[in-house]
Amino acid sequence: MTTWEAVIGIETHVELSTASKMFCACRADTPPEPNTACCPVCLALPGALPVANERAISDIVKIGLSLDCEINESSLFYRKSYFYPDLPKNYQISQYTFPVCENGTLDLDVDGEIRTIGITRVHMEEDTGKSTHVGGGDGRIYDADYTLLDFNRAGVPLVEIVSEPDISSAKEARAYGAEIQRIVLALGVSDAKLEAGSMRFDVNVSVRPVGETEFGTRTETKNVNSLRSVERTVDFEIERQIIVLEGGGEIVLETRHWNENTGRTSSMRPKEESEDYRYFQDPDLLPLELPSEWQEAIRETLPELPAARRKRFITAGVDNVTAGVLVDTPALASMFEAAVAEGAPARSVGIWLTGEVVAHTRRRAIAVSDTALTSDHIVELIAMIDGGELSSSAAKQVLAGVLDGEGTPRNVAESEDLLQVSDTGAIEEAIAAVLEANPDALDKIHAGDMKPFGFLVGQVMRHMGGRADPKVVQSLLRTATTP
Ligand code: ADP
Ligand code: MG
Ligand code: ZN
């Protein structure tokens, strides 16, 4: 029996959310009316000349710097030739040698273990148009009667991030995709919507016997458009390839397609080799000069990245998982920061925000920003709990009211009569009544048998309608039962 290991590399395409396209002044937000955002340049009419979009270049440099890449001071545009109806030029302007960014790394925390994934390159290219295959079949070209073409997306700036084959499991592949998405969102360079195609993954998978140093032949599954599908694609391909190899078959270098409904990949076409693309330097575009001072100025504009933010939250006192949830929900992260800055204990703030607040918004199917919650509310709520004014179950009820806009925690606690009694007089009266009704229990305690103590606490709590602070009850009862 052979034991197999997986080797995985991911190519990630990110559509930038610049105002204009990569090489012309057309709007880049792909308006819904087809072919209304096109011009001679993006339609490749004869004589039209491309000019690189400066904003797109600074955006790709931000991505590259965030992935610890080297930024080439001189970078070249190439023509990548292939024929497809949605590619008006019959070539795509892309990069080949001297991409904008090379040799980076990305650290992933996979179940508490840090894995460093190499980033081969991050290059600049342009998106294609969109084809809609009409009539027959399942919307794929093979059975279509005709095809509609919309060039609004043709020429939209597209960044491709290529990883080294350093990923070794489906889970890690998903964690990689998720972290790239977080970084791009934190940089604000793309809306990174997987379901809308503004971010998409090509997933390369091969397997080899453990101990083998050569890579096996890979397959490339194109345009996988959710994190869950990345994970499922990898799992499916690993299993499929092992079955083929153990059956004495061979894996062919090919492009495959992920079918979300069947949960399987299927062969699309043999994979192109780079010779097939007839790469040559685009004679219409000058080399991009990105002097180091310009790069440093871009570096100055980088926001705090998700990994650094998680680390900061963990240092403040929350656990890994809580830090992850906070950072992935910007509204919660900023509320966390504000509440902690106001002096609330980080650990409790983290627990309430990622626990009850998230649960409540899920129940209501709303976003955190749609609730009435402020950081002041969180600070007040936690102070009331820590001060013994609210039990944790009462605090949940109070928080629900606050989220629904019923007022501050104190308003809600008062109007719903949820405040705990820590007034010792009332509790002492209740204790006296309970002890009088349970002389046996008191005798046992006096004789050194502490078993009935818990029972008495329960009785006092009942007497208080559940609204006494259990800590105060325990301490007063201890005094009252000490001979
Ligand atoms: P192409 O454009 O031909 O797909 P790229 O260099 O852009 O080539 O991307 C190849 C991707 O495949 C990279 O992410 C790389 O890490 C990955 N890769 C290369 N060889 C293997 C292999 N044997 N198994 C798995 N992934 C691989
Ligand atoms: Mg590829
Ligand atoms: Zn245009």
Q: How many whole angstroms does the radius of gyration measure?
A: 31 Å
**Major sheet:** 9 strands, mixed
How many domains, in number, for the residues?
Answer: 3
As laid out across the biggest beta sheet, the strand order is 2-6-7-10-1-11-12-13-14
Q: Considering DSSP H and I runs of 4 or more, what fraction of the residues is helical?
A: 25-40%
Our estimate of the beta-strand percent is: 15-25%
Please give the alpha-carbon distance between the first and last residues: 74 Å
Structure description:
It is a single chain. The chain has 483 residues and is of the alpha+beta class. The chain contains 15 helices and 16 strands. The strands form four sheets. The chain has a nine-stranded mixed sheet. A three-stranded antiparallel sheet has the order 5-4-15, with no helix packed on it. Strands 3-16 form a two-stranded antiparallel sheet. The longest helix is centred in the middle third of the chain and has 20 residues, at 227-246. 36% of the residues are buried. The mean pLDDT is 94.
